[in-house]
Fold:
Amino acid sequence: MSRVAKDFRYPQHLTRRRWLKAGSLVTMAMGLGELLRLRVLGGELRGKNQDTAVILIWLTGGLSHMDTYDMKPNAALEYRGDFWPIRTNVPGMEVCEHLPLHAKIADRFTLVRSLSHSFGDHDGAHKRVLTGRIPKSPSGFVNDAPSVGCIVGKLREHLRPEVLNFTSGQRADTNADSYSQGAGYLGRAYAPFLIPGDPSDPKFSIPNLSIVPQLTSRLNDRRSLLRSFDRIRHEVDHSGVLEASSRFQQKALSLLTSDAVRNAFDLSQEESTLRDRYGRNAYGQQALLARRLVEAGTSFANVVMEHPGGASPANSIYNWDCHAVNCHVFDDARWRLPYFDKAVSALIEDIYTRGLDRKIMVIVMGEFGHTPRVSYQKGTGTGILQPGRDHWPAAMSLLVSGGGMRTGQVIGSTNALGEHPKDRPLSPNDLWATAYRHLGIDTEHSFPDYSGRPMPILTDGTPIAELL
Structure:
């Protein structure tokens, strides 16, 4: 530990009362300050397209392509399932009947139906998809290579140091490794800023920003919040802590008390009608918050959509993992898809309405698809025989929108039973090569791994030409 850090940690000139009052703020600043110091030492931004961003809607558990974006109405019942496709406003493109809002704006997105990989468990699939690399081990969610968001955050750290470059909104877990979003050999300094909880909850707050207990009950009172932070600034400055810290600690305190950071999380600033359009639930408000963060300067906003909130049917599951032991796949979808439909369509409409469709690239996907053939087992929660679909990385669908890309099209296809790509097979790396291109990041740029060997951002993958 440096001499400055030691002095900062054990100041002798502070009274106990004053130290306890400012302690949580200062402690957070120390950790954040070290993060900022490491980031400045890390290198320079390589990308050219600086005013760009990605919002990743991550459907953990895996999206059932057969019941959403790649339906097979002519297949036998045990494959096609209970649902029927509906037409969209793009001739020849169809989506599930439970996605009617998608159908109305299909000209503003593209469906990719031919992505695949070879990892059939959640942990290996998360790492394979979110890092663009073959993981050293298929077990466990801790990355050995950095996730895409971490790489984006590192390469864009000099653009606007006062913003959060990589954020992840996730209801349940407060650990980046839960969804393989870790930084691997880049180091923990580049992990995402986690946003736990449900933004539709009136009591929603950000623990990493709400570090002063007496402010928690007044997060929605802008004037009180500003006065409280001004008072803290004064007391910290008066105590001499800032003078004893490095410029990185000072920058950290500025970030934690900045208008830009706090305002981005204040959803009450949005029109009530727009919040209603997104949906007053976790899915909708998470998506809206991601848009606000990107407008405030975030380069990569990950939204982990698990449970939309509120009461759920007994035969449903928390996330998208639609095994028969977990849920009745069709009843779960009947409940879940309307929330999803509303949130995703609102986000797409919103970015186009605001003229952000060239700046923001939206990606909607999970770690794999689900088995084309329906299976039956007794549900753990229901105790009755019910239909489900298991993991299926051999075929998966995703949606992309914005980013100045060509939209209103379908790229690739699967065979008649949805089992594997029939034409235009693509890998996760092709998707990330496209996203990195949008962000102006050179995928041949390398970082040293744990042993010091240079590791390029991607070892393979080509931007998807149909989107460009």
Notes: DSSP finds 14 helices and 18 strands in the chain. Confidence is low (pLDDT under 50) at residues 1-31, 33-47, 210-223, 238-251.
